[in-house]
Every structure is written in C-alpha cells, then in structure tokens.
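#help-structures
NK: newbie question, is this the right format to request a structure? protein is IS200/IS605 family transposase
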Amino acid sequence: MPQSLVYNYTHIIFSTKNRYPFIDKQISTELFKYLGGTCRELNCNPIIVGGHDDHVHLVVLLSQKIALMKLMETIKSHSSKWIKTKGNKYEKFFWQKGYGAFSINPTQIDVVCKYVKEQSKHHQNKSFKDEYVAFLNKYNVKYDEQYVWD
C-alpha cells in the first residue's frame, strides 16, 4: 500500500500529581485551550478538552505522524512548564507520570464529548479514582492498583 491512512479517535485521561486540585476556575479554560493548541501543533485534532479540579480529558483524532507516547510526553511537559508561569500557587504543579488512552468508535464521539463537557456534574458524586477505575474496567484493562496512582 503506497500510503498510510490513520483514523483513530482516542480518549486520553490523566491527572495532576497525587490528584491535587490545581485545575481551578482561574486556570481551567486557558489550560484546556493550551492543551488543544499543543495537540494541533503536533498534527492531532483536538475534538474536546475538558476536565475537573484534578484531571483532564482529551478527545483527539490522532495523527499518523506522532506516537501517542510522544504526544503525551509533549503535552505534559509543555503544559506543566506553562502552568508554573501562571502564579505562585502553581509553582509546585506536576502531572502524574502515567495516563489512560482509550479508543473511541467514531459513532460514539458525540456521547464521549458530552461526557467530557459534563465533568463537573459527574464529579458531584464520583471521585476521579472511581471514574478512572470504571474506565479501566469498561475497557478490560488489566492493572495493579498500586501502580495506577502517583
């Protein structure tokens, strides 16, 4: 085949280190725009970026030109440096080391985007830990809980 064709929607989830609630109203909108911009710079199309106090959800159409691992490394390192410039209360900001990435059936994009938009509503009754473990279980990801959190 003379060309590479990729059409891969991915739902990426990651948290702040130790799930500290750094992502407040003061920074969330600007942070989500920054994350989306970083995706675009790497030729990945951000469909929606959202989250809550201690974590982020990205729905992206991955590029054939960059590995998921490189995308995440770049997003986290660039945004971490950027956040630390936003004031003294963010100077100790870090992302967790890992992330979750889950494929999305193109027919389910609207459902997943609605889920990301309604993060505040979801987290009235559910912690990030519970949400993340539910994703791992839904996608039958085998994991050892002692290595999931940092």
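mod (FA): yep, format's fine, and the tokens are attached above. Helices lie at 28-41, 68-83, 109-117, 119-122, 128-138.
NK: thank you!
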